[in-house]
Amino acid sequence: IITAEKPKYPGVKILRALGWSVRDTLRETTRIFAGLWRQPGFYKFLAFLGFAAFVKMIFLHMDYTYPKFGIRELGEGAPIGHLYGLNNILIVFLAPLAGALTQRIPAYRMVILGSFVAASSVFIMALPPQMFQPMADGWLGHYIAHSWLGLSGAVNPYYVMICLFIVVLSLGEACYSPRLYEYTAAIAPKGQEASYMAMSTLPFFLAKLGVAPLSGVLLSRFCPAAGPRHSGTLWLVI
After folding, report:
1. pLDDT per position as a tens digit, 154-174
2. How far is CA 95 from CA 123, 171, 172, in A?
3. Exposure of 204 by Cβ count < 10 A (0-12 exposed, 13-18 middle, 19+ buried)?
4. Could you give the angle at the alpha carbon of 176 between the alpha carbons of 65 and 204, nearest 5°?
5. How many angstroms separate the CA atoms of 125 and 117, rounded?
6. Quick one: 27 exposed, middle or buried, by C-beta within 10 A (0-12, 13-18, 19+)?
């Protein structure tokens, strides 16, 4: 049996009803989030999200900073997109695998561990490229540059560094990213799971505010289009 829902604003014209609906929705949304701020544990949750925003900044730098860095260090036409695409391929396999192997480990611990691994991966790019020259001249560099990317000639060590960086970054992401939402739902008071889940997207927007102005400054200072470059310092700052 289907029972028709009673009109919320009976006898009111559609435009006025639409305006009243928007007004009531804004009031209800304000009431819900005002209630969140009155919960002592909510401030700890916001602090936790603030730290998570720093990890999200790494992934945004891969959109803002990494392309220019790759072209300026490896030359026009360098297949830097293929290297970053490795992240998508690895996540497809690593995320469900990590979830299955770590399901007995508390979500909070996995978020901390995964965030630490993801953040640590950037330090690979801050190391001197000369350290990776033997690997670039060996079988790993040959496989990455010649067999996979279809390049020829000597292998720039940055190809090996970027590949290792993305592998470690993807491993950390597979550990922490899915469990972040699980942790959020677990600590939310009963009936407020949706509000907490909505707030869990906050790190992405906070990260954008930090990365957008910083990316251009870092590139112009440490990895300019012309002149001496200090790309290791760029990644060290990141």
Report:
1. 999 999 999 999 999 999 999
2. 23, 8, 10
3. middle
4. 45
5. 14
6. exposed
* Best CA proximity match to 96, nearest among 13, 189, 201, 179: 179
Phi-psi region of 11 (alpha: psi -120 to 50; beta: other; left: phi over 0): left
The residues, any chain, with a CB within 8 Å of residue 149's CB and separated by 6 or more, are 79, 82, 83, 159
SS (H, E, C) 56-78: HHHHHHHHHCHHHHHHHHHCCCC
Helix (H, G, I), strand (E, B) or coil at 104: coil
Q: What is the pLDDT of residues 29-49, one digit of tens each?
A: 787 777 776 777 777 887 888
Strands (E), the chain: none
Q: Are 196 and 184 in contact (CB under 8 A)?
A: yes
Say which residue the tokens 């590949």 belong to.
163
